Amino acid sequence: MESLQEDVRNVISASHPIVYFRTDEEIEVLRIISQEAADYLLFSYDEIDGVRWLNERNYKNNRRVLLRVRNQLESLKPDFLEALSFIRDISRSERTIFVVLSADTLMKEENPQSQKSIRFIKNLVNEIKGDLVEDEESLLLSIFLISDKLLIPSLLEKDILVFEADYPSRDEIREILDEFLEMQDLSLSDELKVEFVSALQGLTRSEIENLLFLAVINDGVLDDKDVDLFINYKKQIVRKNAIIEYIDVRKLPTDIGGLKNLKEWLERKRDIFKNLDTAIKYGVDIPKGVLLFGMPGCGKSLASKYTAKLMGLPLLRLDMGRIMGPYLGQSEENLRKAIKIAESIAPSILWIDEIEKALAGVKGGSSDTVVRIFGALLTWMQEKEKPVFVIATANDISAIPPEFLRKGRFDEIFFVDFPDDKSIKEIFEIHFKKRGKNTNSIDLERVLEELRRKLNELEGKLSNHKGSGGQEDFKVLKKLLKEGKGYSGADIESIVSEVVENAFLNGKETISTEDVIAVVRKSKPIVETLKDKIGDLYDRCEKIGAQPAD
Fold first, then answer.
1. Range of the domain at 154
2. Which letter, b or e, does each residue of 359-381 get, where b requires 16 or more Cβ atoms within 10 Å of its Cβ?
3. Same domain for 353 and 453?
């Protein structure tokens, strides 16, 4: 908040007429204004309490000002226009700062009452500048508008300075933590301090202080168990929002089948997040994220969840469909809120699933709203400073604008292909284990032979097939089938699910190789559905230089 304090100090020193602070930390901003406005009359206004004199105690020895303000306040109704009249009168002779809380509720241009208030504020701004009436003394006034939403009437656009009151930085959180430890006569190891700072990042100062007090009240100490307390609190923040979904990955297996290259790459990023402060000081860039695209059902969504499990970070799923709102500016505000939530619990992972559906219209002359949303998302991804790791998943990137795929948006782009024999074995083992079954009684080599036989049958059926890409499509498809590729991870899971269900209904304790083969013979690999798109997917993979995930 040091930069915010400097902003407030500069605004007051420059006697700027009107400033807008967008923040969730109303109390902290008020505290800073109070510190910097010690020599000013300081008033606040909200629609419940009306006008409040915030620094009355500073004037207990100034009887003239004390009596004048008290008398006027006693007769004042909780009406904004009356409050503005009072402020105008006081600021003709006394240096005054007027803070309007929940300012967005009073700035709605479609509301007739708000229209009067906006016009009144414009008049005050003109009087502060001395522009309204020649030879009339300027008002000694600065107006501070505070809200968690940014809503600026067109009449005031050129007059208002806008500031975003950010959350405490990692250094500031460390200072808050050190102050608390000293006050409570407690200590923490340097390693645990780093974990505390990461867990508390994205919370307001008051939230941090409250959580630290709560942690101490629970058992009288601060220890590693309190990290869970802080993270659970941040989870509650997410669950209050309909735009973003918190994904619980605690029950997810510790490994997923295949995707060897992707997993090794993610382990490198995990090590950076686990040593974030040290990495930043060394000069390492904060990981931006990864784009996963390729065959449907081959593990993109599962890989997103696995990443959160591997890194030990909260996973947030952003539904771009929920971002779009019916009212002007609502979609942009929804995106801002979603980003703010992701940043508020950082370090975190933001998973944008099936991103191609949200961005499909950008290339084809879509609505201005979609273009603005796309631009805002691109800018944030390029410039974000908070440790939010973005995972975007897509089945088809043909509709995604090329600027979204440039280096700088993501650290890497991976192509998720059909699993090979080794990965298919791993996937079978994982899904049987997930259902409480082992594969000791199953000859997976024979199962693989049956899968290959099914794919060879498909090759024969498609020998005369020419997809939308012509003979090239078939060449790629034929090569895939000869390599024994064509079943997705989702296909394998479906086979396992049916095998286990059959065993249960038939009262079998042990699952045999024949049980699995019987289900495989009835199965239909997803490659058959994708036959017309195969060539295009591989072509795009090559054009953008995507890395193989396995």
1. 2-164
2. bbbbeeeeeebbeebbeebbebb
3. no
Helix (H) or strand (E) holding 393: strand 388-394
Judge if 14 and 101 occupy the same domain: yes
Cα 216 to Cα 223: distance, rounded to the nearest angstrom: 9
Q: Could you tell me if 12 and 146 lie in one domain?
A: yes
Q: What is the DSSP string of 35-80?
A: HHTTTSEEEEEETTTEEEETTGGGGTT-HHHHHHHHHHHHT--S-H
Mean per-residue pLDDT, 129-144: 76
In 183-271, beta strands by DSSP E: 244-247
* pLDDT the model gives residue 96: 94
In a domain, 247, yes or no: no
Residues 546, 413 contacting (CB under 8 angstroms):
yes
Q: What six digits make up the tokens of 109?
A: 């241009």
| Spatial separation of the C-alpha atoms in residues 385 and 257, rounded to whole Å | 33
Work out whether the CA dihedral 127, 131, 135, 137 comes out positive or negative: positive
pLDDT tens track for 279-290: 888 999 889 999
The verdict on 446 and 323 lying in the same domain is no
Question: How crowded is residue 465: how many other Cβ atoms within 10 Å of its Cβ?
Answer: 15
Amino acid 360: pLDDT: 64
Are 337 and 242 a contacting pair, CB within 8 Å? Answer: no
- The structural domain count of the chain equals 4
Determine contact, residues 15/132, Cβ cutoff 8 Å: no
- How far apart CA 310 and CA 254 sit, in angstroms, is 7
Give bridge partners of residue 318 from the DSSP assignment.
244, 352
For 152-157, the CB contacts below 8 A with 24+ separation are 152/20, 152/107, 153/107, 153/109, 153/114, 153/118, 154/109, 155/118, 155/119, 155/122, 156/18, 156/118, 156/121, 156/122, 156/125
